Structures are given as C-alpha cells and as structure tokens.
Here is the input.
Amino acid sequence: QTRALLAFTDLVLLDIKAIDDGAHRNLTGASNQGVQAFFELCDTLQKKVIVRHVLIPTLNDDELSLSLFEAYVTKFRCVERIEILPYHTHGAQKWSALGKTYPLAGIPPMDNAFAKQIERRFNDILKHRDLTPREYKHSSLHLKK
Here is the structure.
C-alpha cells in the first residue's frame, strides 16, 4: 500500500523524532523502525523528502545527538532539505486541559537562533555532499563544525 501511495507522491514531509530507537521510544512511546523503513523506501524510490526535526533542549540538542542525526539523515540521496523546528511549550496547555501530565514539563523552549544555526549546518552538508575530498578541503564547510 505504501509503495502504491508513493507512486502518486511528489514530496514527502518526514518528521524524525530521534535516530536512536531507545531515545525515540522514550520520547514517543514507540519504535522508530517504521519511520526508518519508510525513509529507506523513499530513498529507494527516489522520492523527494524534506526532513523535519524538533530540537529539544536537554533531550537532543547535544553534539552526540546532532552528529547521529546528521550522519543518518545526510546519507539519504532523497533528502532535499532539513528543517529544524525549535521546541516550544505551546502544547503543554492541551495536556493540562485533558487532565494529563505533560511529559516535557520543565523543559524550556529552544533558542530559535541556535535551531537556525543547526539547520544551516545540516543543509550545508546536503548542499556539499557531492564534493570530492579536495573540493571539500578548499570549501568553507569543513571549518564550520
């Protein structure tokens, strides 16, 4: 069914919560294996994908998490661009209205400037992923990390 639907799809917006399955389970309550399988299928079928990722302070904004995300996502040829969405607390009131505990209570909103910086970093890598090692060395990209 998914392949049939993708036959009529020009662009996929793919939200990736976490690369590590354990971190994904902690954040969403579910495995990310389905998301990863779908991503691989999009790549196989050469479907254009925009990857979206919410950056959450203390959960996935450390260098290890960012490097894992970068290494995983930028290897897919189907990725047109990456959008980094800064975490905000607007959803907390909805949880409260439902009488539920907000699972991200106490986490401050993400700094928008930092999120934009990370988005530029990832998209620069996408833009330059076809450079030869020599071209890369002479570009400014290797100096940005």
Remarks:
- DSSP finds seven helices and three strands in the chain.
- The helical segments are 2-6, 21-28, 33-44, 63-73, 92-97, 112-128, 133-138.
- The two ends are 41 Å apart (CA to CA).
